[in-house]
Amino acid sequence: MSAPSFWCIVPAAGVGRRMGSKVPKQYLDLNGRSVIDYTIERLLLHPMVDGLYVALSEEDGWWDDSEFAGHPDLVRVTGGTERCFSVLNALAALEPRAAADDWVLVHDAARPCVRRHDIDHLVSMVRDQEIGGLLGMPVRDTMKRTDSADRILNTVERTHLWHAFTPQMFRFGTLFDAMRGALEAGVLVTDEASAIEWAGHQPIMVECSADNIKITRPEDLPLAAYYLERQRDGKPW
């Protein structure tokens, strides 16, 4: 039996409305390169990765200018109106090449600072698991639950609470079945782990570096630039 292959999926069809920019956040300038170029570089150039599928909007007018648009190991697929549809489209495109027990790492296009050693740590922790797992950080702040008017209802016990990051790494067959099943049931999952949980499985959390941030708001962009500069100045990614 051959060793499983490793594939990556980057859903990048969103427009990033919270950034308040005419340019989708994945194409914003970050230290002289686009956000998505950093993201794809850290996945596609990893020695274990066999190929990457990027899901883009049909109206995307920026991708052709990206650094990896013509890379032979990268496949462009059509994204959907929600992240889950983009991931499902990429899984469907990957199906002819992937075995059921291959691994798929799904990573946010707007997480350009993920470190290689965190990817390596995720792989080492998950590759002997039957289902998979994801990077994240334990919650450190006091957590509050509010009502629809933002009035506090109660304080949530933070023990065993995690912030869910990416990559999220699962067996191809398990993830494909879980994503299809959830969407056919009308469940619009917000990440891949949610689909895996919906299917009755328990993925594991793997702690990663705190600088694996997702660019969501304008103030996140200079923070990501700072982290990338720090990584370049002697802290290898």
How does this model look, in words?
The structure is a single chain. By secondary structure, the chain is α/β, with parallel strands linked by helices. The chain has one domain (6-232): Alpha-Beta Complex (Spore Coat Polysaccharide Biosynthesis Protein SpsA, Chain A), CATH 3.90.550.10. Helix content is 28%, strand content 24%. The protein is built from 6 helices and 11 strands. It has helices at 35-44, 83-94, 116-126, 172-184, 192-198, 220-232; strands at residues 6-12, 29-30, 33-34, 51-56, 74-78, 103-106, 132-138, 143-146, 152-156, 162-171, 204-207. The chain has a 7-stranded mixed β-sheet with strand order 5-4-1-6-10-7-11, sandwiched between helices. β8 (143-146) and β9 form a beta hairpin. The longest helix has 13 residues, at 172-184. The radius of gyration is 18 Å and the shape is globular.
SSE blueprint:
Blueprint: E1 6-12, E2 29-30, E3 33-34, H1 35-44, E4 51-56, E5 74-78, H2 83-94, E6 103-106, H3 116-126, E7 132-138, E8 143-146, E9 152-156, E10 162-171, H4 172-184, H5 192-198, E11 204-207, H6 220-232
Parallel strand pairs: 1-4, 1-6, 4-5, 7-11
Antiparallel strand pairs: 2-3, 6-10, 7-10, 8-9
The percent range for strand residues is: 15-25%
Share in helix: 25-40%
Q: Give me the Rg, rounded.
A: 18 Å
Largest sheet: 7 strands, mixed
| CATH hierarchy class name | Alpha Beta
> How many structural domains can be distinguished in the coordinates?
1
Give the integer mean of the pLDDT values: 94
CATH architecture: Alpha-Beta Complex
> Might you state the CATH topology name?
Spore Coat Polysaccharide Biosynthesis Protein SpsA, Chain A
Superfamily at the CATH H level?
Spore Coat Polysaccharide Biosynthesis Protein SpsA, Chain A
Low-confidence stretches: none
The helix/strand class is: alpha/beta
Q: How many angstroms separate the termini?
A: 33 Å
Any idea what the shape is?
Answer: globular
Give the tally of β-strands.
11
- Number of helix segments? 6
Question: What oligomeric state do the depicted chains represent?
Answer: single chain
Order of helices and strands: EEEHEEHEHEEEEHHEH
Spatial arrangement of strands, main beta sheet: 5-4-1-6-10-7-11
